[in-house]
Amino acid sequence: MEQGIFKNVLDKTLSSYGFRKEKANYCKECSDTIIIVDLQSSGVQGGFYINYGFFVTKLHYDIEEATLLSCDFASRFTMEDNSSVFFPDKLSVDEYKIIIEDNIEKHISPFLSEGIENSLALYP
Predict the structure, then answer these.
(1) What is the pTM of this model?
(2) Phi, psi of 103 (to 5 degrees)
(3) CA-to-CA distance for 102 and 106, rounded, in angstroms?
(4) What is the dihedral of CA 49, 55, 60, 63, to 10 degrees?
(5) Comparing C-alpha atoms, which of 98, 79, 76 is closest to residue 87?
(6) Could you tell me the maximum CA-CA distance found in the chain, to the nearest angstrom?
(7) Any idea what the Cα angle at residue 5 is, between residues 27 and 85, rounded to 5°?
């Protein structure tokens, strides 16, 4: 799979979960949190990281724009072997989509359904 298709799969999958593209990031605003997902070059030939972070709006009154660097906590999507570098040429479109969906369900959906405070208690 070439890099453009890789980014397109990420875009469509995140959009199906309510994320919208803002500059180089994908954002989803909730009542008390802004969730940010971005794609970062890994420095390894053709590899990428998919980073995500949670910006707790109650904690920030003077920040005009939430970015991954301003998030209160952040991490990376991982594959089944726990590696965090994605190589577009090593995955099929379907495999890649499943990995993204699994990461959203495991790392982001609990915060959406439980709220930030309850999720932090459950998933410290």
Answers:
(1) 0.86
(2) -65, -40
(3) 6
(4) 40
(5) 79
(6) 43
(7) 70
